[in-house]
Design a protein that fits this description.
Layout (H helix, E strand, L loop, with lengths): L1 E6 L2 E7 L6 H18 L7 H6 L10 H16 L16 H18 L5 E5 L2 E5 L8 E7 L2 E11 L3 E6 L8 E2 L4 E2 L3 E8 L2 H13 L4 H7 L4 E6 L4 E3 L9
Antiparallel strand pairs: 1-2, 2-3, 3-4, 4-7, 5-6, 7-10, 8-9, 10-11, 11-12
Helix pairs in contact: 1-4, 4-5, 5-6
Length: 246
């Protein structure tokens, strides 16, 4: 059972490979992503984060999910030496660097909580896998060539792991280095494999903000592996990344 819907301004794909999966099981997951979008989207006038940015909500009025995300963002900022920062140059909060991975992980937990073991959740290219695909094999995930997005440069095989990619090839230079106060320009793509998509996503965002130093940071984090492509097209991978590549 597999379906894709456009939510949060991007394609969200949910696939449950277990035979008893039904359309309602997918609908449960999609409804959750709609809730996440309605709460955390800075593009929606009525979202909770928009109200916070416009100073229309006091911290005591925030939802438990909002408080959790802010706490997780602060933890990540500390763990990355300040390279992860939800404060934009304009002085507002942007939670996109942490919410997506958190939401995908929560969705995967919902699926597992419903008794399913084999599944795949993909939101805008950030992915959480569960066990095996319909063919009984590890899930295959392609990493795009940032200079030709129709080409796959690496295929990784995952079982119960997450993979997240930060890059400039779709939106241009948009990732801010909060310490040096400038856009990142020396790398174009950084993919991170982690024990789950939340860990992969938050550290992919922070490592990309570090530029070429980011792959060294990923190497230093237990449980993470990475694959970076710089603006000249030169790829660098961590020492254990090859275990995921066929």
């Amino acid at each position: 059972m597999k379906e894709t819907r456009i939510i949060m301004g991007m394609p969200v794909t949910v696939e449950i490979a277990d035979e008893r999966a039904a359309k309602d099981d997918l609908g449960m997951v999609f409804s959750y992503f709609v809730y996440v979008d309605d709460t955390f989207s800075t593009y929606k006038k009525g979202s909770e984060i928009t109200k916070i940015n416009k100073r229309r909500m006091l911290r005591g009025e925030w939802s438990s999910d909002m408080r959790e995300i802010f706490d997780l963002a602060e933890q990540t900022k500390q763990e990355t030496g300040g390279y992860f920062d939800i404060m934009t140059p304009e002085g507002s909060y942007d939670l996109s660097g942490i919410v997506k991975g958190w939401a995908i992980r929560n969705a995967a937990r919902m699926i597992a909580g419903a008794g399913f073991k084999n599944f795949y959740v993909d939101a805008g290219g950030d992915i959480q896998t569960g066990r095996l695909n319909p063919e009984g094999k590890f899930w295959s995930v392609g990493i795009r060539n940032p200079f030709n997005t129709k080409e796959i440069v690496k295929t990784v095989h995952l079982k119960d792991e997450g993979i997240a990619t930060s890059g400039t090839y779709e939106r241009g230079e948009h990732i801010w280095n909060p310490l040096e106060k400038k856009m990142v320009a020396d790398i174009v793509s950084l993919s991170v494999v982690g024990p789950d998509i939340y860990e992969a996503d938050r550290f992919a965002t922070a490592a990309f903000a570090m530029g070429k130093k980011g792959i060294v940071f990923i190497e230093s984090r237990p449980g993470l592996e990475g694959y970076m492509i710089d603006k000249k097209g030169i790829a660098t991978m961590t020492s254990g990344f090859s275990q995921y590549v066929s």
